[in-house]
Amino acid sequence: MAEKKSRGKGSGNSEFKTILKQLSYNKLAMLGAIIFVLELLLVLLAPVISPYNYEEMDTTAIRQTSSAEHLFGTDDLGRDILSRVLYAGRYSITMGIFSTLLAAALGMVIGSIAGYFGGWVDNVIMRFLDIIQSLPGLLLSIVLSAVLGPGYINTILALSVNGIPGQARLLRAEMLKVRGNEYIEASQSINCTKLRVIASHMIPNSISPMIVQATMGVANMIIMASSLSFIGLGVQPPAPEWGAMLSYSREFIRSSPHMAIFPGLAIALTVLSLNLMGDGLRDALDPKLRR
Amino acid sequence: MIRYIIRRLLWMIPVALGVAVIVFTLMTFCPSDAAEIILGSNATEEDKEILRDSMGLNDPFFVRLGDFLTDTFIRFDFGKSWVTKADIKTSILERMPRTFVLTVSTLAISVLVGIPLGIIAAINQGKLGDNMCMAFALAGISIPNFWLALLLVILFSVKLKLLPPMGIGGLEYYILPAIAGCTNGIASLARQTRSSMLEVIRSDYITTARAKGVKEFDVITKHALKNALIPIITVVGTHFGRLLGGMMIIETIFSIPGMGTLIITAVNTRDLPVVQVGSIILAIVFSFCMLIVDLLYAAVDPRIKAQYESMGKRRVKHG
Predict the structure, then answer these.
(1) C-alpha distance from residue B86 to each of A237, B61, B83, B89, B262 (Å)
(2) For range A250-260, the mean pLDDT
(3) How close, in Å, is residue A257 to chain B by CA atoms?
(4) DSSP annotation of A252
(5) pLDDT at B24 over 80
(6) A274: CB partners within 8 A, 6+ apart
(7) Inter-chain CB pairs, A–B, below 8 Å
(8) Do B147 and A130 lie within an 8 Å CB cutoff?
(9) What is the mean pLDDT of chain B?
(10) pLDDT in tens, A33-73
(11) Collapsing DSSP states into helix, strand and coil, what is residue B87?
(12) Rounded to a whole number, what is the largest CA-CA distance in chain B?
């Protein structure tokens, strides 16, 4: 058994390496990864690199366009937009990542229960997910964040509920395929607990579609998080958030349109880099496209 | 086939009830006091208590849930808004057509532009046309539609003064919202069309069709596209759901009095009855559209049609 386990681990590792190698051939995916990592560094180092504090008002420089002192210009209170965009990224990007992780974790629990037990358990869970999914995506998050109230953690919760059904379905579908394999039967025959069969044999063999979905999911969640802040739910001012900044800029759209440019550009760049990575990952995991 | 449609329509009843129960239950946790919203914050505590009693808000949860379900689904009485005091049914009937027209026309534009773009990209795989289409598509899925909407307003309304920035009226008021709403759809449809066309185009029957001397246009539209259509329809379906959500924000930006602005304003003013009924109605509309998508599968693929028909006779697992 020990031998089998170690062999299983070994092959998992080399599979992982093949995927990384495939990914490194893909120039666009690498570009996406580089952009995303750079952006993550910029955002995490915001207190060090941002030229001003995000709350610092400068009444002598109100609604200025780009200049040497204020690279992205200033808003109506004289706050430096570059600094605000950097700090806002901390909220937007982490909300995207954490809500996706939470959705993946909960989706994994639900999906593996449905996929392992099958039968009526599966039926009940799937019909319940049907009902949840008949509320169009953003609407569910809007209703949830209305109930939970605004704020960072609550927005993450409201967003993650949205991602659970998709992840659960993906894992369930993969697990149904895996379930009939000999190694599952083998592990059951040597009296592995259900939890162990699911956690260490079935999930590792059916997780790859979830990973692709999660990469793309972060991009989607970032857009949804900023949508929620845009309509006044989500993160509240004066904390900066890309969607909230865009929403705020609407008042000044005639006099100072530059306020609406940079926060949106930040969202678009982040989402683009994640989509490039997701595309690359999907191709790398698809054996038909392997070089 | 008809049996299948009836089964699906019947299944929508528990779905609608389920959505109603979920939304109603969620709303009871909402920190919001009906009496305070209706009477204003100056009202005395006794007045508020009397109103709560008369509205049945002090009843146990299951009694309120039962009342809500019978009112909504049996008497079709959706109640009144707490904030505007308007009858919810009238405001929904007034607003639904706008949202529906906007959503459907946006979806139509997405389909009419996105699928041809994907076909062009697939035919010219690896060439300039492909790269241009895919670069456009990548931009399309990455740019959030509410930001695009703001940019369009800046360009066409503020700078060029060509189109109205907000409100409703003639056709010109719907141009910017439709453009802002359709780029995501165009992009995801173009990407899906390209990849499923590429899979089909290498098949033997395409080579056969070409060898028979079928015109290239017919090979692409009749032989290839028809077989590549299933995943494309799936994307259309999932995109419709996103569009219903995304339209809510676009409506807010352009101040279009549709379902989206109704629900979002209600959420912000804690006007719970409007949020409840609005969400249920949108969920029902969405379920209808998913049914149409499933029927489209059957129309496109005879194998799926046969599967649907056999479902009436014997239970197919995981159907």
Answers:
(1) 31, 25, 8, 9, 12
(2) 80
(3) 7
(4) G
(5) yes
(6) A32, A36, A215, A216, A218, A219, A222
(7) 130
(8) no
(9) 83
(10) 899 999 888 888 878 777 777 777 776 766 677 776 767 77
(11) strand
(12) 86
Residue B257 has pLDDT above 70, yes or no: yes
Query: Which residue among B246, B248, B287 places its CB closest to the CB of A134?
Result: B287
- Is B132:B190 a contact under the CB 8 Å cutoff? no
| Maximum average pLDDT range among A85-99, A177-191, B78-92, B161-175 | A85-99
Residue of A nearest to B251 (CA): A231
For chain A, list residues whose CB is within 8 angstroms of any CB belonging to chain B.
Answer: 122, 127-128, 130-132, 134-139, 142-144, 146-147, 149, 176, 219, 223, 226-227, 230-233, 243, 246, 249-250, 253-254, 257, 260-261, 263-264, 267-269, 271-272, 275-276
Interface contact flag, B142 A143, Cβ < 8 Å: no
Closest Cβ–Cβ partner in B14, B142, B151 for A272: B142
ipTM over 0.85: no
Q: Where are the beta strands (DSSP E) in A80-193?
A: none
Residue extents of the structural domains in chain B: 2-73, 93-268
Q: First and final CA of chain A: distance in angstroms?
A: 34
Smallest CA–CA separation between B279 and chain A, in Å?
7
Average pLDDT over residues B19-29: 86
A281 pLDDT above the threshold of 80: yes
In this predicted structure, the answer to whether residue A10 has a pLDDT above a threshold of 50 is no
The helix, strand and coil proportions of chain B, stated in percent and rounded to the nearest 5, come to 80, 0, 20
Residue ranges per domain, chain A?
25-53+64-289
Looking at residue A288, what DSSP letter applies?
Answer: G
Domain A25-53+64-289 is of which CATH architecture? Orthogonal Bundle (1.10)
pTM to 2 decimals? Answer: 0.85
Closest-CA residue of chain B to A234: B268
Closest CA to B244 of B289, B294, B291: B289
State how far the Cα of B178 lies from the Cα of A43, in Å rounded to an integer: 34
Quick check: A138 and B23 CB within 8 A? no
Residue A125 is encoded by which pair of tokens? 């869970």
Q: What is the pLDDT of residue A9?
A: 44
B1's CB contacts (< 8 A; 6+ apart) are B298, B305, B308, B309
Q: Let me know: does B260 contact B99? Beta carbons within 8 Å.
A: yes
Band of the pLDDT at A291, cuts 50, 70, 90? low
Please state the CATH superfamily assignment of the domain spanning residues B93-268 in this structure. MetI-like (1.10.3720.10)
Q: Do B186 and B140 contact (CB within 8 A), yes or no?
A: yes
